[in-house]
Design goal:
The protein has 21 helices and 18 strands. The protein is α/β, with parallel strands linked by helices. α14 links the parallel β12 and β13. It binds adenosine monophosphate.
Length: 571
């Protein structure tokens, strides 16, 4: 339990949010506030100004959106905006406005994004009908102010989001003029990923006695951060499921926990990964104890190899067989990262932590590195060419195994007769081609864009170092987790010995796929699977054993006939 987060994380109700908001957050699958939300929401509800250092991915949007909505008078029918959020780009304007709209659905909040490049007429119409919150880029906000179409006299709260970006884009004067137009009694909130002196100067001029929230400065005491191989991939969101599958294929973990932010994400990813042939189970706060126990038993028994979970649901879990932790998103605070990866690499064992970050979240990785004083190397997602090479390696290994096994004499006549007419090399090439094609490895041909972080200033040297080491690729040498021969199968299950293992490229998914595809059993009926170098063991219900052995006589595994028989073991 030592690596778990303390149980004093407040709930959204504890933060003082009204029922309509709490309901919406629960509908969205948010289980608890992120650290920045827990710190800032109560103070913002009290009306304090705030200067917050927070990068994207920390949950900062909800941190200011919820207090805005908390102030909203539900019965406002028309009227001038009461909140103004300034953001650097049109993308962010749309994103923030959608987020506020989602959180405020139960309150009927009217939110309008205002940015350049969009017909101004539509914006004018909406403003005339009455709007509660305006999310604007500074340039377009100034246009409206000059036309007299953006009334600011009822503004109660102004948020400057990603203030450092706005300054970098040259919006400094615009921001000053906009702030001049708003009532001096307003509440002012400033979020920025960095706090250079220019930001502090703005804060000094426009914020009154603000609370300051900065990312944790305290570093994790040496030895507290677990010894874990840590890597990250920069991947656009839409490619994440494919990338996760591909990375898992290369890593071949024994058991993995994948952390997602919300309940909805957990359910969605579990379904996607099951559809891709992994044995994934969901675990989140919406499940009762019985459901949770069932999931944990499947993971502990080896019937599932991927646990997809939220932080809340995974708190307090201690799973021995875990080898890999995957952050499907960068955690909302460096501390959560440390807690999460603490689930592997326990008791002197080696663990692996993998983070899938969106390109914009690169900065959060840097914060984590700073806090843990450990390096997270940015790796390249295996390309289609890498996969092809790997498949080719597997074919080579299969052929070599076949040569070592012997018993090839019956085919000699085929080679000899062909050799009369063709070069032996050509005969061999044709045979390799057939072996390769019939290995049946599902080809995942979708190319995943390779995004590398943009080196900036002092970071460039370090980036080059990271890149140099990542080019070498992961060299994780997984201990052979071979079957424990003396242990019997689970109750009601019988273990089948399969005469092919890791060195033939067999993965649990191949055995599940072959058995579920050739018999009446479904993936869920299949129990624990253990893969050793030269053989595998798979548990199936006793009633299905003969059917499996029989069916597997008629089919091939990775293009080869493989013996399936009842395992002989001592109890
Ligand atoms: P932001 O840092 O505001 O860009 O938010 C990053 C992501 O975290 C967004 O996709 C939000 O929907 C999500 N998010 C924000 N707060 C929470 C929370 N308390 N629990 C789960 N997800 C959240």
């Amino acid at each position: 339990m030592s690596a778990d987060q303390p149980d004093d994380v407040p709930t959204f109700v504890d933060l003082g949010l009204r029922a309509e908001l709490v309901t919406e957050l629960s509908n969205l699958g948010y289980e608890e506030p992120t650290p920045i939300q827990a710190e800032s929401i109560p103070q913002l509800i009290e009306g304090r100004d705030l200067l917050g250092q927070a990068a994207t991915g920390t949950g900062k949007t909800a941190a200011f959106a919820l207090p805005i909505l908390e102030r909203l008078d539900k019965n406002r029918s028309e009227g001038e905006p009461m909140a103004l959020v300034l953001v650097p780009t049109r993308e962010l304007a749309m994103q923030v406005s959608e987020a506020i709209h989602r959180y405020g659905r139960g309150l009927g909040a009217r939110v309008l994004p205002i940015f350049g490049g969009q017909p101004i007429g539509r914006q004018l119409q909406a403003l005339r009908r009455g709007i509660d919150v305006v999310v604007a880029t500074p340039g377009r906000a100034i246009d409206h102010i000059n036309r007299g179409t953006l009334p600011l006299s009822s503004i109660e709260i102004v948020v400057l989001d990603e203030a450092d970006e706005m300054l970098d884009m040259g919006f400094s004067e615009d921001i000053e003029s906009i702030l001049q137009e708003t009532p001096p009694t307003r509440q002012t909130v400033l979020f920025s990923a960095t706090l250079p002196s220019r930001i502090n100067a703005i804060a000094k001029r426009h914020l009154t006695n603000p609370i300051r929230i900065e990312i944790a400065r305290a570093s994790v005491a040496a030895g507290d951060a677990p010894k874990v191989r840590q890597s990250a991939y920069l991947i656009p969101r839409s490619h994440k499921p494919a990338a996760l599958g591909r990375i898992l294929d290369v890593e071949s973990p024994t058991a993995t926990i994948v952390f997602c932010r919300t309940r909805l994400e957990v359910d969605e990813l579990t379904e996607t990964m099951n559809g891709r042939g992994y044995r994934a189970e969901a675990l989140h706060g919406g499940m009762n104890q019985e459901q949770r126990d069932r999931v944990m038993n499947r993971l502990r028994g080896g019937t599932a190899d991927l646990l997809v979970a939220t932080d809340v649901a995974a708190r307090g879990l201690d799973i021995d067989q875990l080898t890999h932790v995957v952050n499907y998103d960068v955690p909302s605070a460096p501390e959560s990262y440390v807690h999460r990866i603490g689930r592997v690499g326990r008791a002197g064992r080696e663990g692996v932590a993998i983070t899938l970050a969106e390109p914009r979240q690169h900065r959060m990785l840097k914060n984590i590195e700073r806090l843990t004083k450990q390096r997270i190397s940015i790796e390249k997602v295996p390309t289609v060419a890498d996969l092809r090479t790997r498949r080719m390696e597997l074919t080579r290994a299969t052929l070599e195994e076949s040569i070592l096994e012997g018993g090839l004499d019956q085919f000699r006549v085929v080679v000899e007769t062909l050799a009369d007419e063709y070069d032996v090399m050509e005969v061999a090439l044709a045979a390799v081609k057939l072996a390769h094609e019939s290995s049946g490895a599902a080809a995942d041909e979708e190319e995943i864009p390779d995004v590398q972080p943009r080196p900036e200033g002092n970071d460039k040297k370090k980036w080059d170092r990271d890149k140099g080491s990542s080019d070498k690729g992961g060299s994780y040498d997984k201990a052979d987790r071979g079957p424990k021969k003396a242990r019997g199968p689970s109750e009601g299950m019988t273990r089948i010995y399969v005469a092919a293992g890791r060195s033939s490229g067999i993965r649990p998914g191949d055995l599940v796929g072959a058995i579920a595809g050739e018999t009446d059993l479904s993936g869920r009926d299949i129990g624990a699977i253990e893969i050793a170098d030269r053989f595998s063991l798979v548990e199936v219900p006793e009633s299905g054993v003969d059917q499996v052995i029989d069916a597997m006589k008629r089919t091939t595994l990775k293009g080869k006939k493989v013996t399936f028989r009842r395992e002989r073991y001592e109890t």
